[in-house]
Model the fold of this input.
Amino acid sequence: MECLFCDIVKGKTPSFKVYEDREFMAVFDIRPANPGHLILFPKRHVVFLSDMSDEEIGKFFSLASKLASLVVKAVEAKGYNLIYSAGAQAGQLTPHVILHIIPRFEGDEVKIFWEPKSVNEKDFERIRERILKFFEGKEEKKKERKEEKKLYKVEPRIPRYW
Done:
């Protein structure tokens, strides 16, 4: 299965590169929500954040923060969104970790919202107990991660850029 972001790293797919180091790359989204919309991603093929080390994740988000500040200044935005989606059900179209850095402007009409659901205290407690149980059981986390990868059956949509 081809990966759009791995192809960008290899130079097989053209991009408008903004940043690159040994581990990460940032390019302009060619179908941006707003001018200056960047996509930051690891250069090695990684499907989920959970597949990255804590150190890599720290560098990734530190870099995202710096790039967001710079792009906000460059396009004179009033704020920004960082958007990460994991798995097909969350809207991940290509199986590679990417983080959207979207500059925001007053009245830009970019919509990021959901219909709130009601959750009672028993549900909060039950979910919290399960989270803590999984947090403590490292072997279960590894098994769950493998199962999560098996469930990812969405064919990537590789948009035509040119």
Residues 4-151 form a domain with the HIT family, subunit A fold (CATH 3.30.428.10).
